[in-house]
Amino acid sequence: MSHFPESQNQHLHAFAFSHARFEHSRLKQKPAVIWMTGISASGKSTIADALDIALQEQGRITAIIDGDSVRGGLCRDLGFTDSDRDENIRRVAEVARLMLEAGLIVIVALISPSSASRHYARSIIGNEFFIEVHVDVPLETAEHRDPKGLYKKARAGLIKHFTGIDSHYDVPVFPEVHLDTQALSVAQSVETILDWVTRHDDHT
């Protein structure tokens, strides 16, 4: 696990951001970051998409940050070494934090394999607003699904540092929400997350 550096030479303006701002948000919703973690082909993006639709149907204002999308833009300069993965997660967490401050419910779908990097993301976003969702599936099931053919390439040595093959995934110990995607359908997974959000929503 690499060290997460902090700048020694930046002096940030003290904007009037506070928890009280959320209580009077024009969006009339409690903002949150729903951080979905799991190995490739676990179902993160599919569930995130369905969750986004369900939240919007409730009148909530949302945004999705998907791992593949940020790899093609915000983080396209990064590889898949441990340090690059850490930086990828840091950037996503910082963007999610900005969206959170705007009052949005942010859905992040990111492998985020290390527990230390997920803890760091939680510290950036704030524990009160961070909802860790473990999208859980056995490796053999994910390999069988393999919609992008990535596991096959990793097994053949064509992809290095691939989570679950030659790079470790730290299984979340105490996630806010655990989804067994072998037992739960997409709709059931979404309902499980919505139930947690509703029970912890100060504005409902």
Notes on the structure:
α2 (44-57) crosses α8 (186-199) and α4 (82-101) packs parallel to α5 (115-125). The chain has 204 residues and is an alpha/beta fold. Helix content is 40%, strand content 13%. The protein has helices at residues 19-23, 44-57, 67-71, 82-101, 115-125, 139-145, 150-155, 186-199, and strands spanning 32-37, 62-66, 105-109, 130-136, 177-180. The chain is built from 8 helices and 5 strands. The chain has a domain at 32-138 and 171-200: 3-Layer(aba) Sandwich (Rossmann fold). Strands 2-3-1-4-5 form a 5-stranded parallel sheet, with helices on both faces. It is globular, with a radius of gyration of 17 Å. One of its GO terms (cellular component) is cytoplasm. Residues 31-180 form the APS kinase domain. One of its GO terms (biological process) is sulfate assimilation, phosphoadenylyl sulfate reduction by phosphoadenylyl-sulfate reductase (thioredoxin). Pathway: Sulfur metabolism; hydrogen sulfide biosynthesis; sulfite from sulfate: step 2/3. The active site is at residue 112.
Q: Output the strand order for the largest sheet.
A: 2-3-1-4-5
CATH class of the domain at 32-138 and 171-200 reads Alpha Beta
Low-confidence stretches: none
Classify the secondary structure makeup into a structural class: alpha/beta
Topology:
Elements: H1 19-23, E1 32-37, H2 44-57, E2 62-66, H3 67-71, H4 82-101, E3 105-109, H5 115-125, E4 130-136, H6 139-145, H7 150-155, E5 177-180, H8 186-199
Explain briefly what this protein structure is.
It holds the Pfam family APS_kinase. The chain is an alpha/beta fold and 204 residues long.
